[in-house]
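Q: A small favour: would you put together sequence and structure tokens for a protein?
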Amino acid sequence: MKIPPYLKKGDTVGIVCTARKFFPEEAQAAIDLLKSWGLEAKLGKTIGLDSCQLGGTDKERTADLQEMLDDDNIKAIWCARGGYGTVRIIDSLDFSKFKKHPKWIMGFSDVTVLHSHLNTLGIASIHSIMPFTVPKAPEEVKETLRKALFGEKIRYEIESKGYEFQGKAKGQLVGGNLSILYSLLGSQSSLDTKGKILFIEDLDEYLYHIDRMMQNLKRNGYFENLKGLIVGSMTDMHDNEIPFGQNEVGIISEIAKDYKIPVCFYFPSGHQKDNRTLILGKEVEFEVTKDKIILDFK
């Protein structure tokens, strides 16, 4: 796995739309944050474009991201916001130069398309807050992104909730948004999870759909030879008038119990204010005990 070069003061971070639209005035908080870290920001040509929901047409978003991928002066790329749309451009991108000279790509939610695709290319990426979410992000969450970008040590230790599966594992961390991972199954962007530790999170889903997605991941071998499972925020879950009968913990636990791996729930990452940075593709040590959960990036 290639780890892109860590940033240093004076480096430039490009901000682009790969999915929903985002406007220059919305970017100011992110620009100010980068400047406070000694970094420069460059807004992509898609910032300010308005194509219905999207930040420009597919052609415009492809061209903007491609330019950022190939520009030697851009040391990291920060996707402006999620929503939907990255999958519409992923197959039109040329990663040939990027594979030789990788750089950090950052974001979460719909950016899982890029995280997953980059993992298949053997390049690490950063699951993190985005310019759209910077204004509401706590300072300690912003600090986790800074540490990841500058190559500083990241280690999380949080309190157990009481229904985890205890154990210890070591492996490469992969994953992202559950709905996106589910949608990529069978494509060239789908993850190989063998020997790895999988992170999943989601937003605004019905419980029966969480079950359907988990069952499909299982049938596609996602949990065979998996070393561990980290479940992040499962925000704003819904049930039908006739209840499904299990919440997200029950649904995931029912599948995970067959694999005898450590599992934690509600890890502070995903669609919530406490969205801590994860370096996908990096080797981690993951431990779940009766009292605490430890995720240590080696």
In short: The chain has a mean pLDDT of 97. The CA atoms of residues 37 and 245 lie 48 Å apart.
